[in-house]
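=== RUN LOG ===
request id: a7f3
mode: sequence -> structure
chains: 1
length: 438
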Amino acid sequence: MPHVTFVPLTGFRVREPEMRRLGMSLPGLTSRAAALAELPALGMLTLAGLTPKPWSCSYHGVQTYTEKVVQQITDEQPDLVAISALTASVEEAYILSDRVRAAGVQVVMGGLHVSACPEEAETHCDAVIVGRGERVWHQVLQDTLGGQLQRRYTSEGNLPPLWPMPRFELLGHRPPRFTLQTQTGCPFSCDFCGSSRLLGRFFEKPIENIREELAIIAQITPRPMIELADDNTFAGSRNVQPLFNAFSAVNARWFTEADWRIGECADVLRGLAASGCVQVLVGIESLVFRYPGMGKKQAELDRIMNAVTAIQDAGVAVNGCFIAGAEGETPESLDRLTDFLLRSPLAEVQVTLQTPFPGTALHRSLADQGRLLEDRGWSAYSLFDVTYRPDRMSVAELESGFRNVLKRVFSEHATKRRNDIRRRIMRRARSLRSQHSE
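=== RESULT ===
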């Protein structure tokens, strides 16, 4: 029986030693990193769902390359190993692939980074998948058995996804969180975003598929915690009530990403908390620079914050995401960002450095200007390391200024203040759900 082993590299990577020490000492950063590390790699589980008999499958989610991981993989004597990794961990993925291939096992690699840099990835594996892997996966398996694995498989991004059922049972335990997609891609094309267009067009998953997936998850873990792997959940045109009903049916608690405009959508606000949504991550982005490609998300800060207040008044916490280091950033503007976050009504915040991921308009622009730092490889593309020369600061000034933002925004006092805001929102949510059930 042929066997395929799925190996995603997960978890945060931070290159700069002082940032690593800082992250370990700030409870807000540490808790979010731990939550993300708990998430199963949905892309791999989805490909497993498409793997036909007589193939068998196994799943090894790992946070870092080790020789023990290589031994565990090769001990299974797989016919094929599928590896995925984000940019910050891709160098480790290349080492892992090289070691597995040295043991005589064929390796295929895919994901966002590989799709953006296929020529680079091809030097470390037998085959690469560019784009969404679902439509080429059967061909990859067929070619593996026939000894004719091609160097590159390119998925047509304009075709709708196949939406197979992910193989959650391969996790072998009850994960504290599940991942689920209700859509792929995003209608917008923000310059800094590496996911919205790279793998293909925007498509919404049929509600019947979502219901079936949620039912399987609920069988594994009653009242599951689910983080949607969507880029912008409510950016499409679907009727939101059937989606809310699907989450309510399994008593799920769920998190997602959306843009601030849901705070102006009465039908969304009515159903969010009642359906079990506990937090929405909203990209507010930079306070000093308007990124191209944001389309209808672009608005004045006062309007965005009014929408944030409406979402939280509806019983759902907002995690406001901000980018430090965009064009025009200065030490003074970083101080203003910090002061804003310390007094804002946001229940949670996320502050990361502008990161020019490969395949983005931002990466192309900075490369054309000769501003990418040549001495910092892919492992520095972590969202917490500087990888380019800022336009109005030195690299050292941006590094120091960013650390100071994190120290103040994620201090014990500031974290306690946001925790108090979250508790008030949770009480509001319970009250709204009680009214909804009457």
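=== NOTES ===
The chain has a mean pLDDT of 91.
The longest strand covers residues 277-285.
=== END ===
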